[in-house]
């Protein structure tokens, strides 16, 4: 590619050019992929490199936005994984869960949309799924229904019963009865 073709790729944020070359900005000492969404620099401040090692050897550091130093960088995937990890850890403590998700610094609707794309469940659906999964384990271990509901993060018995029936197709009591009946048959 000529310098002008490379420059055109930078201006257009061309993802097809990623990996074919890197560009560096003299005034910031940062190098980027052609698809980087950062502000377009002045052409006179740009150097082109065939690979990232050449840019590093010339004294440039990788951009924190487009991460040209990584083979694959998917911030949305990283964000949804972090969200899932937070839910898995704090599903029983709604206040801490809210605080941790808020600390991600992302609009809740946008985060929910990304989560749905990654895990085929919305955040509330996944939260309910995790809580019911834990509830089933507790019930089978002999915990009382009321204790299970509150220990799994439900703030009322009606929300627990409603969520449990929606997720499993039966009430907590029926679930326990069915499981005991099925284990005696074996």
From TrEMBL:
Its keywords, alphabetically, are: Activator, Coiled coil, DNA damage, DNA repair, DNA-binding, Metal-binding, Methyltransferase, Transcription, Transcription regulation, Transferase, Zinc
Matching entries from SMART domains are given as: HTH_ARAC
Q: Which Pfam families match?
A: Ada_Zn_binding, HTH_18
User: Could you tell me which InterPro entries the record lists for this protein?
Assistant: Ada-like_dom_sf, Ada_DNA_repair_Zn-bd, Homeodomain-like_sf, HTH_AraC, HTH_AraC-typ_CS, Me-P-triester_DNA_alkyl-Trfase
Q: Which PROSITE patterns match?
A: HTH_ARAC_FAMILY_1 (PS00041), HTH_ARAC_FAMILY_2 (PS01124)
Q: Where is the signal peptide?
A: none
The HTH araC/xylS-type domain, residue ranges: 81-178
Q: Does the keyword Methyltransferase apply?
A: yes
Q: Please indicate if the UniProt record lists rRNA-binding as a keyword.
A: no
Q: Which positions are tagged coiled coil?
A: 87-114
| Cofactor (UniProt) | Zn(2+)
Q: How is this protein named in the record? A: Ada metal-binding domain-containing protein
